[in-house]
Amino acid sequence: MRSADAALPLALRIARRELRGGLKGFRIFLAALALGVAAIAAVGSLSASVDGALKGDAKALLGGDVDLTLAHREASAAEYRAMQAAGLVSTSAELRAMTRAAQAKEGTGKRLLVELKAVDQHYPLYGALELTPPITTAAAFAARDGVFGAVADTDVLARLGLKLGERIKLGDATFELRATIGREPDRAVSAFILGPRLMVSMAALPATGLIQPGSIVRYNYRLKLPGGSDARAWLAELARQFPDAGWRAHSFHNATPRLQEFLDRIALYLTLVGLTALLVGGIGVANAVKAYLDGRATTIAILKCLGAPARLIFQAYLAEVFAIALCGIAIGLALGAIVPFLLADSLAHYLPVLAHAGLHPAPLLLAAAYGVLTTFAFTLWPLAEARDTPPQRLFRALAAPLRQWPRRVDALALLGAAAALAALAIASAGDRRIALWFVAGAVATLAAFRLSAWLIAASARAAARTPFVLSAWPTLRLALANLYRPGAPTASVVLSLGVGLTLLVAVGLVEGNLLREVTETLPAGAPSYFFIDIQPDQLKGFDEAVRGVEGTSGLEQVPSLRGRITALNGVAAERAKINPRSAWVLESDRGLTYAAIPPPGARIVAGSWWPADYAGPPLVSLDAEVARDFALKLGDTLTVNVLGREVTARIASFREIEWSSLTLNFVMVFSPGVLEGAPQTFIATVKASAAAEEPLVRAVTDRFANISAIHVKEALEAAASILGSIASAVRLTALFTLIVGTLVLAGALAAEHERRTYDAVVLKVLGATRRTLLATFLIEYGVLGAAAAAVASALGTLVGYLVTTRIMEGAWHFLPAAVAGTALGSTLLTLALGFAGTWRALGERPAPYLRNE
Q1: In angstroms, rounded to a whole number, what is the distance separating the alpha carbons of residues 123 and 125?
Q2: Is 653 helix (H, G, I), strand (E, B) or coil?
Q3: Separation CA 745–CA 57 (nearest Å)
């Protein structure tokens, strides 16, 4: 043999010669690796495309270089002058309102909750409001014959049964519908949407009478700054000029933080699911390499007998494996790279921007790195095993499959590859805490399935030796022996199916529990309607309108204000150290109220409520979970800005709130005597029978045009639809993992074909019938499929329980139908694939195999 210096060129020559035989034995390897890499590359490329669109269209999405948002009040004269001095200002107002067809008489017709947006003549500063028919915004909103124009989502026209040119009633004013909205450039920064969009001009808004003291209205001031201006520096200077303004400020550098965070989180989850698919594919890679090397055992033994050093064997087959792996990675990268081009138009229906389709090197390089590390981590062991096994054992590989523990240096290399794979997953994740939990969960899951495979084999060994099986069930005994014999596919089958099944079970249970909570549990005790923007002087008339409708009950009403937390124990809120879980409480104005007695649906868990006739310094009762996340304790202080006035209150109690009950509750409830003088409205909830719902809405909104009705059932159905869409996307990715697992399973069974055929030949020669052999193999695969399904169901249920109760903080209900359906499907899949492989083995002629032996 040649010297060590010439070993590598010779190894490459051997690898090249081996590759001339084609990809037989490596097709599953290639497919599993390509699909795993494609999943990661696709998610990364699509995320980069959307992220590029968000950054590229940031000014249009925000509506300007800068956006200043005020709740309940307009900017003061001084504040507005400061804005005008900086650049062109566009003003808009957003609120919820009820509308109906103008020709519908009072007491008849359908009322519709809309998200009303009033805009001025400068709107939009960036981008374009796309309308059908394509008319200008001036023409769309101008007054004609004393009637202002309006544009709306097509859903407004469909639900009210109207056509363009017809009129609607909005508050005290009448509007003509002149166009439908195709694209609203800045909708991404709007508040949570409960109804379809309706747009009018700011000039027409006063005529509606909808703006009342304390009304829930949001004013947006968008600025177009001169070229070269530093938007963030200008905002910092504005904050110094007006430290108590209470507005929420954004520049185009961070135009859509919530949308960006949501998309980043979705991309992270899908990437991790793609990585799961790649790990499952890694099992297929290991199986394929092991089966191929088993098939080349005689060749390797001959090379060793001729003096080939172990390193040459290792290098030759490592080169061959990586040549094929690079092909699989290249295919996966190509598939992943074209996804943005294929899905860009489809995503436009769900996102406020059109994804910028293109090649994105960073996610492709990341996917390639995952593929290379996975290949190395899963092929090192079988390669080291073939390298270190003595030639005499290699010649007996068919009868006694190779089992060799790797050397210390190989074990360290294998652990290093696994650690690098884990480190890459964590380092490249947007939320490293979630990625760390994923890595820990993946290790635990793989270990659990490997342990399960060992337990299945051990149980089969014990069962096969019981007197009952020994004496009465030879077919069963033979099937059980196949589960624990040397080279049995037990571990491969359980691992390949188990991870995908676990994901499917977990997703099904989480989705089922959330949808059950939203569509079944909540409506039983939830109100039918929320009524908002009730003025204090309308309370009596509102009560009369509600109680005058037969079939209504459970009327509750509380005062409602908006305030922004500005300080915790005297420390500015933006500098306070808090748990990110409750950061939403500080992001903008929050609803708050005052009460003499504790609100229903809340339990005081610390401190005590103030007396009903309390008249001392300001006190506040706080949501217990928020208090924990803010590291607050009883006696600490909370400062809230209410319409420009700072109110500092001492924390008197913590409440555990059951938000899912949908009763009137607030994060902050103040003691009486603090907020009564501030402009405020009332919120009310009412229960109504199905027959009373429409009459109730008509009775209230016909009498008080400024009051809006939020139908709880429709809001819940919208939430359920969103949850269902997200769950479907996650379920599809989980199903993708299962598809990869199925490929791996098929590969494991294909790798077993030679051994199956040999076993069948020997048994037929010894007198076994085709029926006996078929029953034996079907029992074996049935037990394997059922065992994998049982373990996956248990682990998936545990994951579903933890996600539902710990992360979603919802109620848990075990859903046996979802688990049973997945388990049955996996068992049937294993049986089908096992039957296909067994049928081929039974059809082989004995003579060639006996002569070869």
Answers
A1: 5
A2: strand
A3: 46
Residue 447 in this model has a pLDDT that exceeds 70: yes
Planar angle of CA 482, 484, 486, nearest 5 degrees: 90
- Which phi and psi (to 5°) does residue 308 adopt? -65, 130
In angstroms, rounded to a whole number, what is the distance separating the alpha carbons of residues 212 and 384? 78
Q: If residue 566 lies in a helix (H) or strand (E), which one and from where to where? A: strand 552-568
Q: What's the pTM?
A: 0.67
Q: Measuring CA to CA, how many Å separate 636 from each of 567, 577, 651, 708?
A: 11, 15, 6, 37
Instruction: Specify the 3-state DSSP secondary structure of 207.
Output: helix
How far apart CA 552 and CA 338 sit, in angstroms, is: 56
H/E stretch holding 463 reads helix 432-464
Query: 627 versus 478: which is more confidently predicted?
Result: 627
Q: Which residues fall within 8 angstroms of residue 722, CB to CB, at 6 or more apart?
A: none
Question: Distances from the Cα of 400 to the Cαs of 34, 426, 488, 804, in angstroms?
Answer: 32, 41, 11, 47
- 3-state class of 394 per DSSP? helix
> What per-residue confidence (pLDDT) applies to 354?
61
488: left (phi over 0), alpha (psi -120 to 50) or beta: beta
Q: What is the 3-state secondary structure (H, E, C) of 290-320?
A: HHHHHHCHHHHHHHHHCCCCHHHHHHHHHHH
How many beta carbons lie within 10 A of that of residue 638, not counting itself?
Answer: 24
Q: Is the pLDDT of residue 133 over 50?
A: yes
Quick check: helix, strand or coil at residue 157? helix
3-state class (DSSP) for residue 588: coil
The reported pLDDT for the residue numbered 487 is 67
pLDDT-derived band at 758 (thresholds 50, 70, 90) equals: low
609 secondary structure, DSSP code? P
Three-class DSSP category at 638: strand
Determine the Cα–Cα distance for residues 86 and 231; give it in Å rounded to an integer. Answer: 10
**What three-state secondary structure class fits 668?**
strand
Amino acid (one-letter) located at 378: F
**CA distance linking residue 114 with residue 96, whole number of Å:** 6
Q: Given a cut of 80, is residue 710 above it in pLDDT?
A: yes
Q: Please, what is the angle between helix 816-842 and helix 712-751, to 10°?
A: 20
* Residue 576 exposed, middle or buried by CB count within 10 Å (0-12, 13-18, 19+): middle
Output the six-digit token pair for 306.
């001729």
Residue ranges per structural domain of the chain: 66-224, 552-688
